[in-house]
Amino acid sequence: MCGIFGVYNLPGDAHAYRQRALYLSKKLRHRGPDWSGCTVAGNHILCHERLAIVGVESGAQPLTNDDESVILSVNGEIYNHKALRKLCPEGTHFKTQSDCEVILHLYKHMGAEVVKHLDGMFSWILLDTKKNRILAARDPIGITTLYQGWNSKQPGTLYFASELKALNEECDRIIAFPPGHIFDSETGETTRYFQPSWWEGEKIPATPVDYTLIRESLEKAVRKRLMSEVPYGVLLSGGLDSSLIASIAARETQKMISGQVPLNKDGDDVDESAVASWPRLLSFSMGLEGS
């Protein structure tokens, strides 16, 4: 997981705050050892500690559009980024192979609605310098972490970070940013964008259980999470769920490498070039005795 840190509407020039921002962002460096980036725009600042997974050579963040008026810092992965690129107008210029860059370009045409089109695990901060606007969003069920903070001595200034440790020296009020929500400085509101039909517990499904559909849905969910240009592995607890996921991951990887099944099966829109980068699951030692 990467680490993101951002401050919106600082009193005065954010360049004077840059060293402080780098100090706070460094507290997140264990999350992203591959690259540290910092962008200052007016009285706003975004920082990023990167763990490179997709677009390894070109996806350094914060990302910017062509005229650098929109700045983006993301922690996470956008599984359907290939499909989303097709929604961009013809001639859209992509600077990188990053799965996250598509957010920048779709924001230009959709505004805050872009978050409703994302399939992935993510927390991100987007700054539109022309509109003096900031958006912050977290994935539907909160796989990634995001916190929002305020300092009572600086009313109007907003802080965002992947972990509390980057905020507790600056803020006297901190909240966990709610999953499935987006904050928009234009309205000053944090609103829910994720509203599935099963969200209401009182609604009992009347559709009979389709075990084939369950299996295919699980396989698809595992397949799209194999999107990586670096070695990947699985964590095994010894239980049924992790063993099943590991088995599917190993099988799907081998199928894709050997060409036994068509890539982008059933409209998956998985980045097949990234999936096919590693022919097998790897084992990793976590430093535990016997591992």
TrEMBL record:
GO BP annotations, alphabetical order: asparagine biosynthetic process
Cell membrane in keyword set: no
Keyword Aminoacyl-tRNA synthetase assigned: no
UniProt keywords, alphabetically: ATP-binding, Ligase, Nucleotide-binding
GO molecular-function terms, A-Z: asparagine synthase (glutamine-hydrolyzing) activity; ATP binding
Gene Ontology CC: one annotated term: cytosol
Domain Glutamine amidotransferase type-2: 2-188
The protein's name: Asparagine synthetase
Organism from which the protein derives: Linnemannia exigua
This protein's encoding gene: ASN1_3
